[in-house]
Amino acid sequence: MKKRILRIIILLLLVGAVFYFNGGFEKLLKSPTVQAFGDLIVDFHTVGPIFNLTNMKPGDSETKPIDVTNNGSVSRIIAARGTRTGGIGLDPKIETVLNVTIKDGSTALYGPKSMTDFFSDSLSQDGILLNTINAGDHKTYNFLVEFPTSANNLYQAKSVTADLSFGTITGNNVVFNEVYYIDTKKKTRFKYQWIELYNPTRQDIRLKNWTITDNSRTTVIRSDKKIKAGGFALLSDDGTVWKLWNEPKNSLKIKVVKKFGNGLDVDGDHVVLKNSSGIEVDRMSWGNDISGFTPPAVNPKAALGHSTERQTPGFDTDAASDWVDRNPPTPGN
């Protein structure tokens, strides 16, 4: 009996392996309504133009739910773009009177604004900012188009078609992502301080001769190591600190020659990151030091044993609101 069960299991494994290596799962999961935009998996629930608006009457509306999944390993700021792909009718075109609203649940993220403005706003560098989706999570965005009841007969027999695309907003250089400066061990608190950098770009970046400056002095990164695209680097002046944390095993760890400044000031300090050419690429601060943001603002002092962390890796508006108190700290994530 056991041998028979074993044969059946082996047979199933073999069949499964053949199915897998012939692209079975990929074909099974593939849908004509689903598209990938980098780490994002987007289900439009329709094939062809997302909106094909014709013969609309005053008071009519149409809603399209779009499911977006963050298939990456870090949180992402989501952005959308709308593109006019066709339509019928002379000026004034129907999109000048149609209103567009984008919602996440009951929360309006955009609009109501005219569809003409929607197309125009989509042309900006980052498209239309929606909100954040954490790694592995998904959200349903509802795109609502309304024909106002106040519209007149100028728009009869006119139409417009439109498509949507999605992407993520990232920075263009390495940034500070998390700072741990207030350890529970007061006597040796400088020893256990660490800084996490994040590379939101699409290329690996060499960190040799980059510098970190606080309110007292400058620390130089002497190690000739690269931070990978979409990766993290953990910096400390004592390698034993990582025995206290559960960071990913493959994390890039860089030991700096001296502690940051004269030790990061718990009550208030700032850090400035410069590349090997001496060009400033990022800065931030906390506590009673407000110099790390534009305009100057307070990033509250972290609680004992907590860190201060960027809300979304790589998303930098130079504002204190980019940062949160993180408990527990998450080095390398």
TrEMBL record:
Residues 165-288 form the LTD domain. It comes from the Bacteria. Residues 297-333 are annotated as: Disordered. This is LTD domain-containing protein. It comes from Candidatus Roizmanbacteria bacterium RIFCSPHIGHO2_02_FULL_38_11.
